[in-house]
Amino acid sequence: MSSSALLKLPDPGRDCPSCPRLVAFRETHRALSPDWHNAPVPTFAAPRPRLLIVGLAPGLRGANKTGRPFTGDYAGDLLYETLTDFGFARGRYQARPDDGLELVDAAITNAVRCVPPENKPVGAEIRNCLPYLSETIEALPSLVCLVALGRIAHDATLSALGVRRAAYPFGHNARHDPRAGLALFDSYHCSRYNTNTGRLTREMFRDVFAAVRAEIDAAS
Ligand code: URA
After folding, report:
1. How far is the centre of ligand 1, averaged over its atoms, from the C-alpha of 119 (Å)?
2. Is the CB of 115 under 6 A from ligand 1?
3. C-alpha 73 – ligand 1 centre gap (Å)
4. Which of 133, 144, 146 is nearest to 187 (CA)?
5. Taking the domains of the chain in order of start, what are their residue ranges?
6. Which CATH superfamily is 16-219 part of?
7. What is the distance in A from the centroid of ligand 1 to the CA of 163?
8. In the list 27, 74, 167, 194, which could disulfide-bond 200, CB 3.0-4.6 Å?
């Protein structure tokens, strides 16, 4: 059973019909790789998390294959290492959903729950999935911090919170207060492209989680 099932977090059903392009992509990959997850990827969550990380969408051979956010994705190597170092995960990440890794006081979800072709969801797909993000945030009253990985996740998170995007411009390691008692931190996405081009270094990513750790510790 997934963590979100245990926590009763909102998830689209395995056969969510909302986005025709994503449904077609999913059906193609169900036929090609019947042993893969090939369905919306549920939120991975510790009980009563104070931190929610919002990614973009599952990677084809990562979360879409394994069924756990960022698991098996290149981006997951840096994300899970960083979460472990800052006390938000424990265990050894081995890129498998049964690796025993546990989140600590944290949850990870995606702005778009289904894998999009070329990792690029279109506007309608982001909008169709917004209710799940919004309901996930509302279902977790323990949250103190959100981290948006990349601009699309940042924009989706603001829309999910029902606040004006223009008031909270995206910036790496920017901190926003979109709702009383709930801080939003931005990071460049920890994708292979961003890390290979040097747009995001390991240190830059760690800086964000150091700030998040301090925020959460100060709130306790
Ligand atoms: N895997 C995910 O689950 N989300 C991302 O944003 C990238 C990879």
Report:
1. 9
2. no
3. 7
4. 146
5. 16-219
6. Uracil-DNA glycosylase-like domain (3.40.470.10)
7. 24
8. 194
